[in-house]
Design brief:
Low-confidence stretches: none
CATH superfamily: Ferric-uptake regulator, C-terminal dimerisarion domain
Oligomer: single chain
Number of domains: 1
Helix content: 25-40%
Amino acid sequence: MKAKPGLALSSVYRTLAVLEQAKIVHRLVTNNEFSRYELAEELSNHHHHLICTSCGRVKDFTLSSKIERSASKSLEQIATEAGFEMHGHRLDVVGLCADCT
């Protein structure tokens, strides 16, 4: 993030925390150094993430509708068996990006 003169970084972080509490943004934790904020899925489109545990790079991806339905059905079954009420899902695949391997 490029700093804007006169804008305190603490203000930016407080604002992001408020937006996260209001469910306007969602924070992706990539590793100990990096976090990424993105619009909440309700305000954007359903997608998943490839997260590099070395550099923190995040690449969004979508599944075909057939695979998405299958994943949702499997996750719903797992949730039901655990007595858990599922409201949705997020899939983060963690590993090393091409630049870090």
